[in-house]
């Protein structure tokens, strides 16, 4: 039986573009170009490495988001994933990490899996909590924030680098794994891969397909909510200190005035 890997990918606003909030204080995705979250590319790449060692491995990329989120799926397919699953429903607008983990768990149960791979966080929210939530909902082991990953005899092992220590972790499949941007170089899609992605299957699901009530997701079902947002203040002219023997004193006085010391 082939190994089934599911990679969770997210469609996010381009970090280099002018991002802002809509009136309901959700990220305005209509006026900003989107793309596959860069950190999720490392998860796709790790799945491809597993398949290189075991060619029978099947890789499914799954995303939750609006119609344009299919671009994230297509990018993963062009990198080498075999098929995609896109969960789209108007009632999902404003869903937070808790609701997203519910939708992903239901979708992944429907797909079938042995190993779930995620990026360390998304480049829009940056929370990094979804892999743990997903593992809890599915009732499987989690090994997160790995900078090195290997799979052998149904056991996933990896290294987690912390500020003061390095941990070696292992878990038997099925499991949820998240990888950092230090886990390797995410490969670029080849022209052949881009053309092949157009013919790969992408299944579309909605909340009814997953037996999820709309009250459990969306803005009303979210456990977290943005109460206030303001534009970042414009940069002001800095203070230039000319050191003529009193530079340190002038710097200390400036920091004290700013209440930084």
Furnish the topology, listing elements before pairings.
Layout: E1 4-8, E2 11-13, E3 34-36, H1 38-53, E4 58-64, H2 70-79, E5 83-87, H3 97-111, E6 115-119, H4 130-138, E7 141-146, E8 148-152, E9 155-161, E10 166-172, E11 175-179, H5 191-197, E12 202-205, H6 218-221, H7 247-257
Parallel strand pairs: 1-4, 1-6, 4-5, 5-12, 6-11, 7-11
Antiparallel strand pairs: 2-3, 8-9, 9-10
Helix pairs in contact: 2-5, 3-4
Provide structural commentary:
The protein has helices at 38-53, 70-79, 97-111, 130-138, 191-197, 218-221, 247-257; strands at 4-8, 11-13, 34-36, 58-64, 83-87, 115-119, 141-146, 148-152, 155-161, 166-172, 175-179, 202-205. The protein is α/β, with parallel strands linked by helices and 261 residues long. The chain has a single domain (4-221), classed as HUPs (Rossmann fold), CATH 3.40.50.620. Strands 7-11-6-1-4-5-12 form a 7-stranded parallel sheet, with helices on both faces. A 3-stranded antiparallel sheet has the order 8-9-10, with no helix packed on it. The protein has a two-stranded antiparallel sheet with strand order 2-3. Helix 2 (70-79) packs across helix 5 (191-197) and helix 3 packs across helix 4 (130-138). The chain is globular. The relative contact order is 0.17.
């Amino acid at each position: 039986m082939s190994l089934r890997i599911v990679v969770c990918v997210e469609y996010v606003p381009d970090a280099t573009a002018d991002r802002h909030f809509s009136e309901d204080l959700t990220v305005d995705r209509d006026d900003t170009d989107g793309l596959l979250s860069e950190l999720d590319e490392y998860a796709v790449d790790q799945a491809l490495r597993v398949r290189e060692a075991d060619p029978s491995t099947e890789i499914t990329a799954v995303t939750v988001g609006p119609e344009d989120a299919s671009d994230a799926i297509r990018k993963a397919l062009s990198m080498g994933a075999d098929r995609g699953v896109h969960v789209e429903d108007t009632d999902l607008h404003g869903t937070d990490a808790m609701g997203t983990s519910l939708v992903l768990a239901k979708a992944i149960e429907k797909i079938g899996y042995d190993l779930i791979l995620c990026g360390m966080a998304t480049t829009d929210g940056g929370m990094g909590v979804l892999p743990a939530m997903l593992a809890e909902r599915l009732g499987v082991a989690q090994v997160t924030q790995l900078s090195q990953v290997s799979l052998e005899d149904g056991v996933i092992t990896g290294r987690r680098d912390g500020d003061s220590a390095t941990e070696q972790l292992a878990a038997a499949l099925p499991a949820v794994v998240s990888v950092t941007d230090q886990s390797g170089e995410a490969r670029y899609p080849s022209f052949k891969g881009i053309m092949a992605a157009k013919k790969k299957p992408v299944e579309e699901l909605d909340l009814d397909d997953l037996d999820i009530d709309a009250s459990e997701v969306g803005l009303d079902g979210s456990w977290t909510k943005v109460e206030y947002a303001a534009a970042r203040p414009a940069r002001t002219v800095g203070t230039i200190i000319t050191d003529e023997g009193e530079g340190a004193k002038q710097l200390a006085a400036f920091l004290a005035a700013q209440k930084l010391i």
